Amino acid sequence: MNTIREIQALNKREIEAGVSPEASWHADYRDTAWVYVGGLPFELSEGDVVTIVSQYGEPVHISMPRDKETGKSRGFAFVKYEDQRSTDLAVDNLGGATVMGRTLKIDHTRYKRKEEDGDGDNLVGVIERPGDAFEDSASEEKRRPMLKEELELAALMRDHDDDDPMKEYIVSEKRAEVSRALAVREGGKKRQKHHGDGKSEHRHRRHRHRDRSRDGRDEGDGRSRRRREKERSDRRSE
Description:
Blueprint lengths: L3 H14 L16 E5 L7 H8 L5 E5 L13 E5 L3 H10 L3 E2 L2 E2 L1 E5 L24 H7 L7 H12 L7 H71 L1
Antiparallel strand pairs: 1-3, 1-6, 2-3, 4-5
């Protein structure tokens, strides 16, 4: 595992020597699409980590170890990219970045799946949003478009100057904005569902009313027929 300074020194030497991508030190890891992501703030969810690393490619699997007793993140994760070349970009550009006061450590790794990881990739077809609970979003939030606030947060984390002492505060404010927007969205979905249920109930009531009206007409028609038959019978008797 290389340190941040070692990686930066390697990259600098290769740039100065004009080393081609085929001869780069990254080429030693062409057989793995996994990266190690260390130095993570403990408050981040799997979705937050995916948002960070997806700046340089499409992640297809994430494994973030948690404390067995508390369930809290242990501060690191393993991420697999769809395209192996994305690992080079992530290692070169994310390593040394500061997130919520902690310095990220990104490096190539040959990760061996744990039993709990399963056989398939757990991010295929899933666009994870910052602040979402990963387990919930993986089953309920498939392929939904990102909100404007989520796009703004991703751009802020990617483009804002890491040396700005206000960045951490700005990011936390934007996260709160994302949470509010998601809450509004969820509230709208619940109202829409309730409105739909109301329509259904209204249709049922209308059908019941029609049925009662039809029954009433049938009963009225029956009384009228009996009355006419009685009148004809009385006239014959006379």
